[in-house]
UniProtKB/TrEMBL annotation:
Record domain ABC transporter: where: 1-232
Organism: Arthrobacter burdickii
Nuclease keyword on record: no
Pfam families: ABC_tran (PF00005)
Entry GO MF terms: ATP binding
Signal peptide: none
Keyword Disulfide bond recorded: no
PANTHER family associated with the record: ABC TRANSPORTER, ATP-BINDING PROTEIN
Keywords linked to the UniProt accession: ATP-binding, Nucleotide-binding, Transport
Protein name: ABC transporter ATP-binding protein
Family: Belongs to the ABC transporter superfamily.
InterPro entries: AAA+_ATPase (IPR003593), ABC_transporter-like_ATP-bd (IPR003439), ABC_transporter-like_CS (IPR017871), P-loop_NTPase (IPR027417)
SMART domains in alphabetical order: AAA
């Protein structure tokens, strides 16, 4: 799957702005970004649920939306939670979903439904009414719906959103096992930890723009270490850090300074020693490595929910 210059404007706001995604076949691809960064809008365009203002979408071996009829039957999707009928059983829900798809044959419906239930580990609860399902089970039922036909690509929008740790684990394991079967999985999330555990490649959205894309290792390698100093002596600390060749920035609070360790060979402990030597009252000192988390915070700004 690929997009080029994909853009969606709502009035003057560009919810998705010139996005070039490259999702290689067979990967579990994480589409990461804070709430409101444009993930759902992008996914809706990929699936032909919304039109693009400009740009191209290549989905499997077709162009969207032109080839929607040919390619969409090979794409399973879960967007914004499944619309489940609460008073029907899990199986009856899937039978309805299957019946609503005009590409399916009624003769093989039961077989397809049972296979999908089995695939997501819901066979034992097939007869239970869906309102008695846990959130994780509901979400797996939604994924079962996406799996009613053989799929080459699965597009899942925040499949673990709102789930408890157990439900999250269930869905995460399911996604991994789907990819073991050779299906390409494109999964969005606002949680870095989530994506790190499931995905091999990721793309990061921030305010409608794609700000990074690559394998986890590639993105880790692009990060730089930082120091973070908490001190009431803000201007003295600023002077010392600048003297060391760093570019300190005030970070949210008045008493916190952060700086990228951009000087080769300069170690965090030397920075701390220099501050203490200059009588700066250091209340907190933190050195962070080139972790993905740092990189994401740097790329997407503050307020990005990295831990959950
Ligand atoms: N139909 C619409 N009309 C106007 N603005 C919209 C519409 N849909 C989305 N937006 C705006 O586009 C931006 C991106 O929204 P989008 O839902 O794609 O983000 P997201 O990354 O999926 O976030 P979330 O995780 O909250 O769904 C937001 O600012 C949103 O308010």
């Amino acid at each position: 799957m690929e997009t080029h210059g994909l853009t969606k404007a709502f009035g003057r706001q560009k919810a998705v702005d010139d996005v070039d995604l490259t999702v290689p076949r067979g990967t579990v691809f994480g589409f990461l970004g804070p709430n409101g960064s444009g993930k759902t809008t992008t996914i809706r365009m990929l699936l032909g649920l919304a039109s693009a203002s400009s740009g191209d979408i290549r989905l499997l071996d077709g162009d969207m939306p032109k080839d929607a009829r040919a390619v969409l039957p090979r794409v399973g999707a879960l967007v914004e939670g499944p619309a489940i009928y609460p008073f029907l059983s899990g199986r009856a829900n899937l039978q309805r979903f299957d019946a609503a798809d005009r590409h399916t044959s009624p003769a093989t419906r039961d077989k397809r439904v049972d296979a999908a239930l089995e695939r997501v580990g819901l066979s034992h609860a097939a007869r239970k009414r869906a309102h008695a399902y846990s959130l994780g089970m509901k979400q797996r039922l939604g994924i079962a719906n996406a799996l009613l036909a053989p799929r080459d690509l699965l597009i899942l929008d925040e499949p673990t959103n709102g789930l408890d740790p157990q439900g999250t684990r269930e869905v995460r394991n399911l996604i991994r096992s789907l990819s073991d079967d050779g299906t390409t999985v494109f999964v969005s999330s606002h949680l870095l930890a989530e994506v790190e555990q499931m995905c091999t490649r990721i793309a990061i959205m921030s305010a409608g723009r794609l700000v990074a894309q690559g394998t986890l290792d590639e993105l880790r390698a692009e990060g730089t270490a930082h120091v973070r100093v908490t001190t009431p002596d803000h201007s003295d600390a600023h002077r010392v850090l600048t003297g060391l060749g760093l570019t300190p920035e005030r970070h949210g609070r008045d008493d916190v300074l952060t700086a990228e360790l951009s000087v080769p060979g300069l170690l965090p402990e030397s920075v701390n020693a220099a501050l203490v030597h200059a009588d700066v009252r250091v209340r907190g000192f933190e050195a962070s490595g080139a972790s993905l988390e740092d990189r994401f915070v740097a790329l997407t700004g503050e307020g990005f929910d990295v831990a959950g």
